[in-house]
Amino acid sequence: MLSFLTLARTYVYEYVPNVLHSTYLGVMEDVPTAFWRSHGEDNLDGVNYTLTGPLASWVVKSSTYTSRKQTLCCFTKGWAGFVAANSVKIGDTLTFTKVGALEFRVTKV
User: Fold this and answer.
1) What is the pTM of this model?
2) Could you tell me the CATH number of the domain that includes residue 52?
3) Which of 27, 9, 11, 22 is nearest to 95 (CA)?
């Protein structure tokens, strides 16, 4: 079972011993680098995932962005809808657990 934790604006991941900081909550959600590297960047670009939250399920798109200095993988299209439908607020701690090939169970901790 693969999982990672996220706090709105501050992240703690199973694979990373230090705390990472997000730029914003709402439009997109960063996927931890160690997580997407272990699955392969190509397996996450343009893929639709179902996030099953405490209140609602939502389909979100994952996208990768590559610059000369870094690559980011994020949940993009649909993330803001998931946040609203599940009443996610800044300071909430979320656990993402991969339960299927294209599905995460998201729980508030």
Assistant:
1) 0.70
2) 2.40.330.10
3) 11
- pLDDT tens per residue across span 10-63: 333 343 332 223 334 556 677 767 776 676 666 677 889 999 999 999 999 988
Q: What DSSP element (H or E) covers 83?
A: helix 79-85
Q: Is 78 helix (H, G, I), strand (E, B) or coil?
A: coil
Measured distance CA(82)–CA(80) in Å, rounded = 5
Token reading at 66: 């590559």
The residues that bridge with 95 in the sheet, in sequence order, are 5, 107
Overall domain count for the chain: 1
Q: What is the mean pLDDT of the chain?
A: 71
Question: Do 47 and 62 touch, CB atoms closer than 8 A?
Answer: yes
Domain assignment of residue 21, given as a range = 2-108
- Got the DSSP string for 93-105? EEEEEEEETTEEE
